[in-house]
Write a structure and sequence with these properties.
six-stranded mixed β-sheet; four-stranded antiparallel β-sheet; 9 helices; about 35% helix; about 25% strand
């Protein structure tokens, strides 16, 4: 269990709740497309890390995108609550302002927009006030040092020419600056070598040191990121449903036996 969240979790109401969630592919007409998430329940208490693991095609990235309100997917049943508010029908920007953050599996490049300008706009939207460029730059420089990023990246266009590891570290930098209540990390370990993985994992731990009440939903294929972050709960997602939940011992069973036992 994670020492960051244990006391907070015992004393607090749920930070994030998913109740009987059904998600289908959005279509142009009034009908829904294929159902991908098929009745999913999940409760995250303040300070907890929940790992969601599953094979390719199990619905992991669909779950991440739909939680953030992606228009590519339609919630056909169930509900999502954060901090007691029903956010099921909220637009993505409203969810972000309310304290949700999604680290993408494949971060997008944005030509012409520097990292610092992107973060200034995003942080201003999150807080509702304009931030001093100097204050923001100082904060970014501090976090870049903690994340072992080249300070010159602050003035480069967002993710343009960045390596895979640099893009993922930039996602963690955004998480640090935006100070979310809930962070959804969609296969943040994808494409990373072991050294880059450890740097990203250390960055997540650093953010949680500053914000111990932040909840994390960690979506991954592999145990190696779990070894670095020690989740409180591990869930196996098969065909759009959580078929088993447990602790780190469940991830260890997966490592040795694979997903066949739950298919």
């Amino acid at each position: 269990m994670d020492p960051f969240g244990s006391k907070l979790a015992c004393m607090s109401q749920p930070l994030f709740e998913i109740d009987d969630l059904h998600v289908s592919v959005a279509t142009e007409d009034t009908s829904s497309g294929a159902e991908i998430v098929k009745g999913l329940d999940l409760t995250v208490l303040p300070g907890e890390i929940h790992a969601v693991m599953g094979p390719n095609g199990s619905g992991k990235s669909t779950l991440a995108s739909s939680l953030m309100g992606s228009p590519e997917y339609e919630i056909t049943a169930g509900s999502i609550h954060m901090n007691g508010d029903d956010i099921t029908d909220w637009e993505p920007d409203i969810r972000a302002k309310a304290g949700m953050f999604l680290a993408f599996q494949y971060p997008q490049e944005i030509a012409g927009v520097s990292v610092i300008n992107f973060l200034r706009q995003a942080a201003s939207a999150r807080t509702g006030s304009d931030l001093s460029v100097l204050e923001l730059r100082l904060s970014i420089m501090e976090w870049m040092e903690r994340l072992e990023m080249d300070p010159s990246f602050a003035d480069r266009y967002l993710n343009e020419g960045f390596s895979g590891g640099e893009k993922k570290r930039n996602e963690i930098l955004q998480m640090a600056i935006l100070e979310p209540d809930l962070a959804i990390l969609d296969e943040t370990d994808s494409g990373l070598d072991i050294d880059a993985l450890r740097i990203v994992a250390r960055g997540v731990r650093e953010v949680r040191t500053d914000r111990p009440e932040m909840g994390v939903v960690l979506i991954t294929h592999y145990q190696r990121l779990l070894d670095e972050l020690s989740p409180d709960h591990v869930h196996i997602l098969i065909d759009g449903q959580i078929v088993r939940s447990g602790g780190m011992e469940l991830a260890q069973v997966l490592e040795s036996e694979g997903y066949d036992s739950w298919r």
